[in-house]
Amino acid sequence: MTLKKKIAISMLAAAVTASAGGGWYLLKHKSSGTAKDIKAHEGAQLYTCAMHPFIVKDKPGTCPVCNMALIKKIDGGAASGPMTQDQKQQAEMLGHVTLSPTQMVMANVATVTASQAQLKKEINAVGIVQYDQSRQAKVTAWVPGRIDKLHVNTIGAVVGKNTPVAEIYSPELVAAQQEYLLAVKSQQQLKDSPLSAISQNGEGLLQSAKQRLMLLGVKEKQISELVNTGKPNLRLPIYASQPGVVIEKLVQQGQYLNTGDVLFNVADLSTVWVEAEVYEDEAPNVRIGQSVDILSQSFPGRQFRGRISFIYPFLDPKTRTIKARVELRNPGMKLKPDMFVNAVIKTELGTAIFVPASAVIDTGKRQVVWVEKMPGMFEPRDVQVGQQSGDKLQILSGISVGDKVAVSGAYLIDSESQLRGGQGHGGHAGHAGGSPAKEGHGSGAAASPQHNKPKGTLSVDDMNM
């Protein structure tokens, strides 16, 4: 027998042996698979793990990975028909995330109970001290003339009400005094007349002359002194109409004035305004009558308290702020106009459900919190967020009082849900994209239970590959 024939016979024998062995193997596994398929086709219930969907068993038990109770597996063909209560419950649970005690510790997951309370908010705004416009006045000349003397020569001088600030010589004023003296003499001569019309005429002339003097700014006291002396006063004083501080001086001694010219501007600084600039998103929380604390770097540790008296009906297009006027007392005139201060506006948001701000995950399109349904099992909830008070967020809808929400570790739970495929509410498109920190963190948490799983409890047959 030649060498080529020997090689051909050997190869043929090997091929026959392999075909026989492969046929026996396929026949055995085919019969086994067929039995399993028939069993499933006949309606046998399979069970899976909500946390690890690749675990499939034909009877109830616990998951060999996380020791969680298995749930009934939904048959793929039943998806087209109405779902049973068990199927609905399973579909909901597939959106949940379950963490083992080891994962809870490693992820530092902590929960708090959502509660209801009276929320208060403090709005911080920058303010500028301004003059109280209702307490400003101008000292003007009531008659034309020449300033012969100034009693106030500097800006910042403090004046009182009816305090003389200047003395003016006015020919018109001198003429009016002389007319009044003549009216006084005429009234004295005519008062004893037997004709009542004549005596009344003399009294009328006197009152008319007196009225003219008062319209020219002459006080009652000055008119009485004029009658006592019987001579006109060549220099009559000009008085301040209100107490305050001289903030503007517009004349010099010896200057000639016309009627209505301003000598001084006076402002009362016992009360000042603070115009606080509130951002437009916080403007709805600002109302007239609210209490405001004013803080100044010039007086550390001291608070000046006032109330909002007016809210301007327009928006500053440059700063995007609305001005709120705060009126407050200024003892000792410590607050100076144009001084920068901080305004703390206190407002009440009412009774509402609140959670820590760290419990809310903002995806950009919606806000999500993770609620602990049972120990270690978390369910995602879409919530509507209201106002923020410090480190707490007002929740308008989505959770109820008493729900336990994840505070620390919420992002890891969210990442774990995304790594599982974003089932239910767990997948946040756009929120999870391109965040290596979250993906790495989540994958580490998902892998940690495999290092602690009991040996020999997980087999290939349990997996639906």
UniProtKB/TrEMBL annotation:
<dbReference type="InterPro" id="IPR058649">
    <property type="entry name" value="CzcB_C"/>
</dbReference>
<dbReference type="InterPro" id="IPR045800">
    <property type="entry name" value="HMBD"/>
</dbReference>
<feature type="compositionally biased region" description="Gly residues">
    <location>
        <begin position="421"/>
        <end position="433"/>
    </location>
</feature>
<dbReference type="InterPro" id="IPR006143">
    <property type="entry name" value="RND_pump_MFP"/>
</dbReference>
<dbReference type="Pfam" id="PF25919">
    <property type="entry name" value="BSH_CusB"/>
</dbReference>
<keyword id="KW-0813">Transport</keyword>
<dbReference type="InterPro" id="IPR058791">
    <property type="entry name" value="3HB_CusB"/>
</dbReference>
<dbReference type="InterPro" id="IPR058792">
    <property type="entry name" value="Beta-barrel_RND_2"/>
</dbReference>
<feature type="region of interest" description="Disordered">
    <location>
        <begin position="418"/>
        <end position="465"/>
    </location>
</feature>
<dbReference type="Pfam" id="PF19335">
    <property type="entry name" value="HMBD"/>
</dbReference>
<dbReference type="InterPro" id="IPR051909">
    <property type="entry name" value="MFP_Cation_Efflux"/>
</dbReference>
<feature type="domain" description="CusB-like three alpha-helical bundle">
    <location>
        <begin position="172"/>
        <end position="232"/>
    </location>
</feature>
<comment type="similarity">
    <text>Belongs to the membrane fusion protein (MFP) (TC 8.A.1) family.</text>
</comment>
<dbReference type="InterPro" id="IPR058790">
    <property type="entry name" value="BSH_CusB"/>
</dbReference>
<feature type="domain" description="CzcB-like C-terminal circularly permuted SH3-like">
    <location>
        <begin position="354"/>
        <end position="413"/>
    </location>
</feature>
<feature type="domain" description="CusB-like beta-barrel">
    <location>
        <begin position="271"/>
        <end position="347"/>
    </location>
</feature>
<keyword id="KW-0732">Signal</keyword>
<feature type="signal peptide">
    <location>
        <begin position="1"/>
        <end position="20"/>
    </location>
</feature>
<feature type="domain" description="Heavy metal binding">
    <location>
        <begin position="47"/>
        <end position="73"/>
    </location>
</feature>
<dbReference type="Pfam" id="PF25975">
    <property type="entry name" value="CzcB_C"/>
</dbReference>
<dbReference type="Pfam" id="PF25869">
    <property type="entry name" value="3HB_CusB"/>
</dbReference>
<protein>
    <submittedName>
        <fullName>Efflux RND transporter periplasmic adaptor subunit</fullName>
    </submittedName>
</protein>
<feature type="domain" description="CusB-like barrel-sandwich hybrid">
    <location>
        <begin position="137"/>
        <end position="267"/>
    </location>
</feature>
<dbReference type="Pfam" id="PF25954">
    <property type="entry name" value="Beta-barrel_RND_2"/>
</dbReference>
